[in-house]
Amino acid sequence: MENTDFEVRSLDTICINESALQHKWYHNIKYLVAGVIFGIILVKSEVVSWFRIQEMFRLQSFHMYGVIGSAVVVGMISVFLIKKLKIKTIYGEPIVFHTKKFNKGQIYGGLLFGFGWAMTGACPGPLFAQVGAGATVVAITLLSAIAGTWVYGKIRNKLPH
Fold it and tell me: Transmembrane stretches, by residue range (predicted)?
């Protein structure tokens, strides 16, 4: 039996694994520290460099492909181990992976993502690291990413998922 639109949307990643635990505000400091360390790693490894990103899209260097490829391998191993060993969160909650059905919107989204990445020289993930590293012009890309996310949130229910 094929999923109805409601059933497909209920499997979206939005809030599926949301924790019901309530913490004090200072519990979030660990995420700030992890984010700062991750940002430093991104800058030092040059993956936030506009020139490295342009080299990748011009097929002139393997640097970015090596970083992305190793991240994919680490992610695959991590997901395998989480499933195999039934690893839980640090608060003891189960980690659940929901299967997703492929649809053509993923191709359109991936192409749009790639074009934006190639044009701006900025992947959405390290935008903050780029701004923090002194590439202040990336603030325009950051504001555009926030605006695009807001627009998507507003029109999401009207889009064919």
Answer: 31-51, 63-82, 107-127, 133-153
pLDDT of residue 2: 54
Distance CA 53, CA 125 (A): 13
In the chain, where the domains are located: 5-158
Backbone φ and ψ of 90, nearest 5°: -65, -15
Q: For residue 75, which amino acid is it? A: G
Q: What is the DSSP string of 94-159?
A: BP--------THHHHHHHHHHHHHHHHT--STTHHHHHHTT-TTHHHHHHHHHHHHHHHHHHGGGS
Helix (H) or strand (E) holding 135: none
How far apart are the C-alpha atoms of 49 and 46, rounded to whole Å?
A: 5
